[in-house]
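Sanity check record (used in CI):
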Amino acid sequence: MKGIILAGGSGTRLAPLTLPTSKQLLPVYDKPMIYYPLSTLMLAGIREVLVITTPHEQEQFKRLLSDGSQWGISISYAIQEKPEGLAQALLIGESFIGTDSVALILGDNIFYGIGMGTALKSMSGREGATVFAYEVTNPQEYGVIEFDTAGKAISIEEKPKSPRSNFVIPGLYFYDNQAVELAKSLTPSARGELEITDLHNLYLSNSQLNVEVLDSTKTWLDTGTIDSLHLAAEGVRKIEKEIGRKINVPEEVSWRLGLISNDQLLQEADKYGKSGYGDYLRALIS
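Expected output for Glucose-1-phosphate thymidylyltransferase:
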């Protein structure tokens, strides 16, 4: 399975913070936002990642992430000329995906929880599409998923005025290889976008949509607005203080997965000088 991080978009909801830089490069507590989705893909066992950016911000991402070899993975880049829907990422990444399955994660979504790595790895090799369901208090702002009395998904609706449930689909999706062809069949919505909900409804109509409910041991944080960005930073700070270590650190993830050695981890730590981030990486060895 390959992975795509969609880090394009205009970022207008976070303006003026996004005038000089990409939303996905903004800090969420102690690290750049894109570190979180990247770490999630790595925990899922993905070693080849495509980062989709705007034309004018790609060099900033390259300066931060490079080619991924420092973490034992491969990172390549593609451009989204205009933000024309989440499903557009599959079309942009068609040649990257090739004949493989693919995980698509939004660059402003954060996932954390006990056993998350194991749960993510189980998504690989499944037929059809697999999405998560997460209970929120403001479902009208997301794609809402409805279940029948047996707990089976029966409908998905994008930002409904009258939600049929409080369960929404976070921005992490796992697809088999037919996702690209299905995305090509989509018609732009009234707002001129290829809606990811329309893609999921195609899988649903073919009885090929798997839905995994994230339980109370898992946390999903969205950072699409100023308030949610602030809450996410506070959430990460709280989690890290409670467990006594950092979360979603690419260097640590790659080291724990055996992708880099102790010496390589220390080399990465040295890049950060005497910062707390560098000290944290050094302390992992001991």
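The longest helix spans residues 226-243. If this sentence no longer matches the regenerated tokens, the check is flagged for review.
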